[in-house]
Amino acid sequence: MSRRIKITLFAIALIGLIAIWVMYTGSGRRTQFIVGGAMVNLGYRLQDRLESYDFVHEHEISPEDVWKEMQQQNALAAAVRETFPRTPRHPLVAMVVCMDARIDTNELTGDTRHYYYIIRTAGSVLSLMEEEMLELAVENGVELVLLSTHSDCAAEKAAASPDMRKRFPALAQAVDERTRRINEFMARPAIASKIDAGKLAVKLINIDTMTEKILPR
Ligand SMILES: [Zn+2]
Fold first, then answer.
1. Closest CA to 148 of 96, 84, 107
2. What is the DSSP letter of 124?
3. DSSP line for 74-97
4. Which of 31, 146, 164, 188 has the largest CB neighbor count within 10 A?
5. DSSP state, 118?
6. Ligand 1 centre from 152 Cα, in Å?
7. How far does residue 153's CA lie from ligand 1's centre (Å)?
8. What's the pLDDT at 36?
9. Strand pairing of 144-150 and 201-207?
10. How does strand 144-150 pair with strand 214-216?
């Protein structure tokens, strides 16, 4: 057998072994997950610098221009998604997160695979409606509910300012009632029975807004 054929056979065997490792072993799947996350992050970093591309211009743009640009971007994204469909998942986690745009829930979870139901409200406040949304999510298979707060929260600042409280009384009251609502949610029969049976966990977390690191509350 010539030296060239030997090298070719060796290369084919090596590629085969790597393919088996990537597809069928735990460490191979973890490597795929991390490489996928790195590529998502590369995309975030590439777009992050493009301040003059859309929405923010040297001249003022009208709300209709913003709408037009958003539709164009959606058309492009939807065409990609249509070409490369994604797998529907059954979420295992439901999270209540503040609407603050600095928090990106995909980055927060380090995951893009739709294992999460996300409810976003200013100040992560709950009303009866959100409690019902969470209970519906639990009925649909959720095993972990995360109730969050975050650093430098505008809704909390509004609730702490007498002037702002006058302008946003309902929001301020909802921030005041956050703990009471959490207790009310935990005491709902369908939720309390699942917690008692060890089938559901509810955790309170605090998010560092700048790093998105989850800290216990
Ligand atoms: Zn906030």
1. 96
2. G
3. HHHHHHHHHHS--------EEEEE
4. 146
5. E
6. 7
7. 4
8. 92
9. parallel
10. unpaired
Query: pLDDT value at position 57?
Result: 65
Q: What is the pLDDT, as a whole number, of residue 51?
A: 79
pLDDT tens for 84-136 read 999 999 999 999 999 999 999 999 999 999 999 999 999 999 999 999 999 99
> Measured in angstroms, how far is the CA atom of residue 34 from the centroid of ligand 1?
29
Name the token pair of 183: 């207790």
Q: How far apart are CA 136 and CA 125, in angstroms?
A: 17
Q: Sheet holding 93-98: strands in order across?
A: 116-121, 93-98, 144-150, 201-207, 214-216
Residue 91 burial (CB count, 10 A): 18
How far apart are the CA of 18 and the centre of ligand 1, in A?
Answer: 45
Beta-strand pair 116-121/214-216:
unpaired
**Per-residue model confidence as pLDDT tens digits over 16-66:** 988 888 888 889 999 999 999 999 999 999 998 887 777 766 678 888 988
Between CA 60 and CA 74 the distance in angstroms is: 22
61 Cα–ligand 1 center, Å: 27
Give pLDDT, residue 24.
85
Tell me, in angstroms, the distance from the centre of ligand 1 to residue 217's CA: 15
Alpha carbon distance 28, 49 (integer Å)? 32
Of 207, 90, 67, which is closest to residue 151 (Cα–Cα)? 207
Span from the CA of 198 to the centroid of ligand 1 (angstroms): 31
Query: For residues 149 and 181, is the Cβ–Cβ distance under 8 A?
Result: no
Strand ranges in 60-196 using DSSP code E only, listed in sequence order: 93-98, 116-121, 144-150
